[in-house]
Amino acid sequence: MDIIQTVKKYVLSVNKEYADTASDHYDFWEQHIQFVVKESLVLAETYNADKEIVELGALLHDIALMTKTGTRGEHHINGKNIAEQLLSKFDYPYDKKERVLNCILHHRSSKNAENIEELCVADADIIAHFDNIPMCFNSAYRSNITDIPDLINYFAGDYADLSDRTKETFNSRYENIMNVLFGDFYKTE
Ligand SMILES: [Fe+2]
Ligand SMILES: [Fe+2]
Questions:
Q1: How many angstroms separate the alpha carbon of residue 138 from the centre of ligand 2?
Q2: Going by fewer Cβ within 10 Å, which terminus of the chain is more open, N or C?
Q3: Which ligand is the nearest neighbour of the Cα of 29?
Q4: How far apart are the CA of 62 and the centre of ligand 1, in A?
Q5: How far does residue 62's CA lie from ligand 2's centre (Å)?
Q6: pLDDT of 43-92, one tens digit each?
Q7: What is the 3-state secondary structure (H, E, C) of 134-182?
Q8: What is the pTM for the complete model shown?
Q9: Could you give all domains of the chain from N- to C-terminal order, each with its CATH number?
Q10: Exposure of 62 by Cβ count < 10 A (0-12 exposed, 13-18 middle, 19+ buried)?
């Protein structure tokens, strides 16, 4: 089995354990990770990034949340440590491992991305929200964000976090989504 399939199998087993045992029974794979993987590979193709590094980064970027390790605020650091142990166990080459680990460490904002692979994972993490709008509404409502202007700001905030180059390529899809969701409430300047 190649490294991608091996890591995916590990992530799916962690996912099942979380969905079966956590109080919220959240299905990370179905609701989020699968979309991040898909979008990260689209961006990797567009930006000519290393697809193996990007896919492994996407698969493992939220692994600390899925394994319930530490706090949400430090999940990028804990995730890097978990991935380091995992990839070492699979004898993944040192230089490639470091590149995957930095995708995880820097995934929380495209502003932190230091190379194109890190940018693909960070931006895909955001675009994945637009692949699963029902989940976004669910989490907005659970945070008591229910007014339409606040919901518009919620999605606009995600878009604003994208890197400048991905904003350009994603813009027309974003405008379509916002117009469908919010119609006349969403005005473009
Ligand atoms: Fe994350
Ligand atoms: Fe994520």
A1: 16
A2: C
A3: 2
A4: 5
A5: 5
A6: 999 999 999 999 999 999 999 999 999 999 999 999 999 999 999 999 99
A7: HHHHHHHHHCCCCCHHHHHHHHHHHHHCCCHHHHHHHHHHHHHHHHHHH
A8: 0.95
A9: 3-185 (1.10.3210.10)
A10: buried
